Amino acid sequence: MDPRGTSAAATTRPSPELDTVGSFDCAEESAHYAFSVQLLLNHYAAVVPWRSEGVAELGSGDARAIGQVVRTMPGLRVHGTDISATSVERARATIDQLGVADRYTVELGDFFEWADSAGGRQVSTVIANPPYIPAPDGDILMPELWGGEHGNDLALRLLKAGFEHLLVAMPSYSDPAETLETAADLGYRVANFLAMGLEFGQYSNEPKVRAHIEQLVAGGHGWAGDDEYVVAVALLTQSPEVTRDRSAQLRRALQLPG
User: Fold this and answer.
1) Phi and psi for 192 in degrees, rounded to 5?
2) pLDDT for 5-46, tens place per residue?
3) 146: which strand partners?
4) pTM, two decimal places
5) At what angle do helices 85-98 and 64-72 cross, to 10 degrees?
6) Closest by alpha carbon to 23, among 71, 64, 68, 70?
7) Would you call 182 exposed, middle or buried from its count of C-beta atoms within 10 A (0-12, 13-18, 19+)?
8) How far apart are CA 42 and CA 27, in angstroms?
């Protein structure tokens, strides 16, 4: 999930409370996400055309993590989209404070509608740390963090949106096996990834959510320890220039069998 209050449109997520829900901060996850995006973009610059095209961002939250990345990568341009007016307001304030408004913009709206627009068709790369809290429904402590019953609704939808390169956060308890299988079926390979262990926080520990995670894990839909899980930020690409597929290594990093 986005640790900065990100919101991104999904057909199965509730929307009435999105503009009034507060944000929360997970410094470890935010730092890991930002570092991973920066490292993977730099390392695969010959494959991912971010210097010429820029990148799109699904859900910008308050833009602190990616704003820092933009500030440290002078050639990077990011177009973010968020459905929360509050998040967009915070993001724009952060971007102004960081002095990167000429290269980082955030608009209010549905990312997938933008992706189908003329502007969306000019970009081949998306970065995303989408909401990934799994629960039977969106009636949880922070509804905008709900990622669907398995927690991977937005990741699956993003895979089917037609972009060539995706840098996406993938948690171990949100059915990453299904996400990786769908990616493979759509011609994506795992170019590389960075994984980090995290402790359960307030929203993962909500009794309703915790019980659901335990059911998912018991059913073979992910991994979680007694109070921990793993998040990996992976570069998925359809480029024929990337011939090595590290999906097996990523599965192991996420503690998945096979």
Assistant:
1) -170, 175
2) 333 333 333 332 233 334 546 788 999 999 999 999 999 999
3) 133
4) 0.89
5) 30
6) 64
7) middle
8) 22
